[in-house]
Design brief:
Strand content of chain A: 5-15%
Number of helices of chain A: 11
Oligomer: homodimer
Shape of chain A: elongated
Radius of gyration of chain A: 27 Å
Number of strands of chain A: 12
Strand order of the largest sheet of chain A: 2-1-3-4-5-11
Order of helices and strands of chain A: HHHHEHEHEEEHEHEHEHEEHEE
DNA sequence: TTGCACAATGGCAACGTTAACATTTGGGTG
DNA sequence: CACCCAAATGTTAACGTTGCCATTGTGCAA
């Protein structure tokens, strides 16, 4: 068992290279006021000793960590992977790192996320909200800690960013109406989902804006099984020629449910989903759906903290619209 | 615009509470050698000033960051979310944080992951390997930086952990043979996938161990579409009564492809997948598959670094077996 | 020769925390 | 009443880095 290697500091490098600590530091930062030959000598010493700058010392001196904290109440969740891709990409761009933390959801409060982060080496934090935190209205971000919430709700003290779920429903409903359908049925999701509720509002209000009274919705639970049941239930409704499901799994389940009752998609009924998550999993159906750019959402959040151009200072609220992707599950009935 | 708030240090708290800095520090760590009333006074001062311990100062003093770095060449990927869940859970358990970094895969080397991490405040690092890094054989971890690779390959200097893909195939093949099938056909995946290749080896060698010469495999690309094509191709082969697909999407595609040629599952052909990823997405089929516990893999990796019981010191290699989950897509033909 | 600008480098202090050691206080024991 | 022990608190120094200012060296114009 080898002896524990004490970490190598600028001092050690300086001694070996025969220069001052300051010159080593300048070399690390590639300052133009160090002679090339001196730099090379210092670099050689760094290589020989295996010098790595100490993050703690540096941060202490600078008062910055160059790190963004991400707090999640639940790691698993649609789009989280893409969002992380965005976090990582934006962080990378600014020379930042990402620190990930799972926050216990009992209680489900922004305060618990915030206090969890407060002891970590981060300059700002992002909180991914799936549900409504108990203290959403009263929460104050830690002083000096820029806080961005990933949610559609606007917060007076924190910047927010998310996909525009309302607009998503508007796009879908207007698309279906544009194809000649008289109304659009809706397969909903559990009521605790913020984004799901916003989709529901978008569906309802867009129909009303077109002078159509929304039909009775069918509540699902995100699973294909619940979509299947919904499809069977809607198959017997003669007014139902277009169905909008809160996610792709339910949309696909719905298609199968309709087929089990002898209804064909898109000949008899048009079906649209949300998420574009079926791509490589289902072989025989190109579902018409809405694609969100979660990576962009993640990037915006980190850009906001790491101070990119294009995102201003101060509290800001951003919603990114999804893109409707036409597949083979909608028919023009005009 | 308010003036920038200088950060509050132990010194400020000490002054306000009328005690020494050391007593403040002791209070923060809830040392038993501080009188309760003193503690309360210090706590009150901390609250009043909004004191938060500075991570950099602490780390500098302690020489530890209590943070594990995770390097990924690609954030998106089957099981990554579950692995992260495991990283976060284990880190939490030990009072550690997770720092996530996306590493550019050009070139795809462990060295690039390692040097990326070297400037970050981490005590150890985990690298998620999807492909074979060019420098796998020659790589040396940074001195003092415990490095764990998530891969099935064993490395002489780094601990490794992953799902046992070989055993996965063994289980599937022996299960199908046990159901009376004379041989097992295989739908493979792109050759650059390490885990996919290991599955292929497992399939081949297990058949041979049972005295069966493996039939020609069909190469897929992970997508349901390729599984569909494979299913159609295999539908005409009279010797094909059991198919093992490298993932669930291809297995599901395969089932649909078989059906398109008039073959029914499981009546005519049995099909098994891997990953247990179809659960809530496909309504009408309970696929027989293998479930991996990626969360456990993630936890093991972080435990190894954060020094949990159950994981020893030094280089260690761990493979976790998957669990075969019986669905409705396999028939007993004995 | 002197003075001066400028390039290259060095010395020092401070960032916030805490381990190790030092000191004070109060209470009990001989 | 001197003594000692333990509890409670204080003092000092060091972790590694870098901003600021001081110093040295070099070439060139006056």
């Amino acid at each position: 068992m080898a002896a524990v290697k004490k970490s190598v500091s600028v001092k050690d490098v300086a001694r070996l290279a025969g220069v001052s600590e300051q010159t080593v530091s300048r070399t690390v930062h590639d300052s133009p006021s160090v002679r090339p030959e001196t730099k090379e000598r210092v670099r050689a010493a760094m290589r020989e000793l295996g010098y790595r700058p100490n993050f703690a010392g540096r941060s202490l001196r600078r008062g910055k960590f160059k790190t963004v904290g991400v707090a999640m109440f639940s790691i698993t969740g649609t789009g989280n992977l893409d969002r992380m891709e965005g976090f990582a990409a934006a962080a990378d761009k600014h020379g930042y790192a990402i620190t990930l933390t799972k926050v216990d959801g009992h209680p489900y409060t922004l305060e618990s996320a915030s206090s969890r982060m407060s002891a970590l080496p981060v300059d700002g934090m992002v909180v991914i909200m799936n549900r409504m935190p108990a203290d959403f209205g009263t929460f104050e971000p830690l002083p000096g800690m820029q806080t961005v919430l990933v949610t559609m709700l606007e917060h007076p003290l924190c910047s927010t960013v998310d996909n525009d779920q309302f607009d998503c429903s508007r796009q879908v409903v207007e698309y279906l109406l544009g194809q000649g359908h008289k109304t659009v049925h809706f397969i909903s999701c559990p009521e605790r989902s913020l984004s799901g509720m916003r989709r529901e509002e978008g569906w309802r209000e867009t129909l009303r804006a077109h002078g159509i009274e929304p039909p009775q919705l069918v509540r699902g639970d995100w699973t294909a099984q619940s979509g299947y049941a919904a499809g069977q239930a809607l198959a017997d409704d003669p007014t139902c020629t277009a169905i909008y499901a809160s996610n792709d799994a339910m949309a696909y389940g719905c298609i199968r449910g309709l087929e089990s009752r002898g209804k064909h998609v898109p000949e008899d009924v048009s079906v649209v989903g949300v998420d574009d998550s079926l791509g490589d999993i289902v072989p025989d159906c190109r579902l018409t759906t809405v694609r969100f750019d979660n990576k962009r959402v993640g990037m915006w959040a980190v850009d906001k903290i790491a101070g990119a151009e294009g995102v201003g200072p101060g509290v800001e609220h951003m919603l990114f619209p999804g893109v409707l992707v036409e597949g083979d599950t909608v028919r023009d009935v005009r």
